[in-house]
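G.,

No rush on this.
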Amino acid sequence: MNDYFIYLSFIGIALVLSYITWQIFIFISSVPDEQRDYLDKPPFIFHILWFLIKPISFYITPFISKKNSERIEKKLIFAGKDFIFKVKDIIASKIVFSLTLLFISILLLEACELDLTYSIAFSIYGFIYPELWLRSEKLKRERIILREIPFFLDIIVLCVEAGLTFINAVDQAVNKSNQTPTRQEFSRLLADVKKGVPRSDALRKMSSRVEHASMQNLTSAIIQAESMGMNLGPILRGQAEQRRVERFLRAEKLALEAPVKMLFPLVAFIFPCTFIVIGFPLYVMMKDAFQ
């Protein structure tokens, strides 16, 4: 009788697992194919979990609020990842990372016999990781643009002073530069102008995609010079020099902040080791002397 009950239990568990597996298969297979020909390939960590992110993003789309959608869309634009992800992909990745880290942490913590409350911390980190990653990419992108913009402007100045128009000069600078965020922004500027967007509006759109005062000052100066009919050569040369000065000031600021940032590692790690190396021989000598 007991063996019969065990067999029935195994059959029931197998049927339940089969039903759950079948429902998951239906959940994933019923998602229509997404047209990603115009989108770039996601980063590695997102790519390996894309088979989960894709169906979840499809099902949660009706529940995404407009406010939340606009907030994440701005972060995607500032990070330069709007050609990789949509808003629904980021929200779905928050859910997937949270559940994945929760599952992995439960397995590891159970194996190590630790408190399961750590799993909650891992799950929370997984939920906020996509937005932390977007913030990191935004800062990295801004640093690259601010570092490259003076040289980029120098190329545009040379072309403008050689007789080209501003748009043709930007086109030459884009064609002669490497694939960087700076080139990407000016390429989008050219694309907007070719689509019929007024030049001033295209410049404002470019400054809105880079949330930094330097880019906003640059675009404002170009728009004002064109509206007043001024020669763009001296304006752009002055902007390039100003960007170089700002870059030097940022480097000087970071150099002045370095000693303060090094204070905690010195106090927490280096000083204790130094005191141990110096104090232990003294302790041994004093111990021997008193004995």
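When you get to it, here's the other one too:
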Amino acid sequence: MPLFMDIHEQLPDGASAADVAAAHKADLATQDQYGVNYKSYWVDEVNGTVFCLVEAPDAEAAIRVHREAHGLLADRVFEVIEGN
């Protein structure tokens, strides 16, 4: 299945790493409906940036999970190839 990295370039004002963890948990609760597997995420609280790594049939499926789970949509989505 394709692998994607999405980037949220600016968290909402006042959002913390704990808020991102709660959003990720919501993704995990929603992902199976769309054949998606959110693998991991990283938070840069200083710059307000979040990166999500996800296996999905296509980028739109990954976006649908974010939309339904919590409404925080990524600014950019890239297909990536996992290295060794």
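Residues 3-80 form a domain with the Alpha-Beta Plaits fold (CATH 3.30.70.3090). The chain has a mean pLDDT of 94.

Enjoy the weekend,
O.
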